[in-house]
Amino acid sequence: MSLPIIKFLKKGSNGSAITEFLIFTLPFFTVLLILVTQIHSKSMALLESKNLARQAVRAFVTSPTPELAMIRAYQVIDLYKSNLSQDALQSRPINLTINCQEFACFSPGNKVSATVSIGRLSTSTASEYVDLWR
Amino acid sequence: MQLDVMKSSNLSQGELARIAIEGGEGSHNYYPLIGGGSLLVINQKQSNKKIIAVAVNESSNN
To answer: What is Dmax (Cα atoms) for chain A?
Structure first.
C-alpha cells in the first residue's frame, strides 16, 4: 500500500536550491531590513528629542532673569538646528513648546515642562523646577 | 553599523554631560548662551550618519 508513496518520496527533484532560497527568503530579509531601519530611525529620533527637551528646559530654569528664560530655551534649539544639514531640517522640523504649572512661569518652585517634537517621528517632554532661592 | 551609531550617540551625550557638570577638555564646540552659561555641542560623522550631542553648561568657567 505504502510503496507508491515511498517511491514518490525517493524520487529526485529537479528544483534549484538557489531559486528556492531566493523565492522564500528574499522577501523575508527585505521586510526584516526595512523593520530594522525603521526601529533605528525611531529610536534615534526619540533619543534626540528627549535630550533636546532636557537641555531646553535646563537652559530655561538656569536663566538669570525671567525675560531671558524663554529666549535661552529657544536659543538651544536654534543652535542645535544650525548644526543639522538642510535636508535634515526640511525632513524633520523641530518644534519647542514650553508649559508651566503656574503663572508667572519663572517663579521659584514652579514646574516647567519643555516639549520637543521632531517631525512626525517623536515627541518628548522634560520637566524641571525653577530654583527656590531665585 | 546602526547599533554602532546608537552607541556613539549615547557615549557622546554622556561624555558631554560629564564635561558640562565637572568641566574638562573634549572634542566639543562651545556656544555662549544669552544671560550666561554655554551650550556644548559635539558634531561628528560616523558611517555617513551625523551624530550631534548637546549639553547646557550652567557655568562659563567649565
So the answer is: 95
Residue B35 lies in a domain: yes
In this predicted complex, what is the ipTM?
0.81
Amino acid at A132: L
- B7 Rama class: left (phi>0) / alpha (psi -120 to 50) / beta: alpha
> Which of B35, B36, B54 has the CB atom closest to A55's CB atom?
B54
* Structural domains counted in chain A: 1
Q: Which one has a higher pLDDT value, A59 or B18?
A: A59
* Inter-chain CB proximity B56 and A59 less than 8 Å: yes
In a domain, A25, yes or no: yes
Contacts with A64 from chain B: Cβ below 8 Å: 35-36
Inter-residue contact A63 to A106 (CB < 8 Å): yes
- Determine the structural domain holding residue A91 and report its residue range: 20-129
Domain containing B8: what range? 2-57
What is the pLDDT at residue A2?
66
Predicted confidence band of residue B16 (pLDDT cuts 50, 70, 90): confident
Inter-chain residue contact A83 with B43, CB threshold 8 Å: yes
Contact list in A for residue B21 (CB cut-off 8 A) is none
Considering only the beta carbons, identify the residue of B9, B35, B37 that sits closest to A44: B9
% of chain B beyond a pLDDT of 90: 5
Domain tally, chain B: 1
The one-letter code for the residue type at A91 is S
